[in-house]
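As a warm-up, study this chain.
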Amino acid sequence: GALPDLLVSDGKHVNMRQVQFDMRLVQRESAQLRTLFASTGLLEDCWAHRHNWCLGYEGTIGGYKPAGGMREGMRTRRPFGKLIVFDDECAYGVQSLYTFLKHTRSMWPATHQGELHQKYARYQSHQFPIGARIYVQQRRSAVGAGKEKRRQPGKNLSTHSVGLRWSIRAPLQVRAMVLTDNVLFLAGWPDSVRIEEKTGVAIDKSGKRPNRAVLWAVSPADGKKLAEYRLDSEPVFDGLIAAGGRLYLSTVDGKVLCFAGQ
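Now compare it with the structure written out below.
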């Protein structure tokens, strides 16, 4: 059996999650995917503990070996995260370090035990920040790729990593991301939660919709933030693309925004 998902192809095979078909739609018995793979589907917008996008799949959970855990995955395995974009040289990922709205000593990393995560709450700047890890992982040459850079899901890239180029902690809940020739764009909202220090219980449970969303422009070379733009509404999950020298962003208020350089 198989769960439905978007069909992704590398030009030689058609993949639906971990199931692979040849170009005649005959299922292959054993497959090592070299395209984007999502543990809960590419359309799933509710991030959970083991919901990750991976660049390649070899039968492991969430893109890393269960025995090695997330730390092992980031050090030795293929790129993985809540979102991934890539070209021939690097993969750019967003990882969430906190996944439960409760105290726990099982969270990674060990230096941040007991911190909380309220994934979709947005509060004022003085409240407890959480944020995300944004990283760039250098990759080996694309398998069978030409000179043209490939940035869209489904392209044929090697699944073996080389190492991190840079990694930053950003006070941003990234919900959409796209890579252009010289800028990495990220859309989302500042992410924080206010807690009661002794119990770790979230203080603000009103569920009020936040009133701030932003679009970041980041340097792919070093992760430096180049610019920040206010948005009237938060982005739809994975709702950011670049085409023809413009950015197109879908927002939850039902609009599609177009951005162009001056």
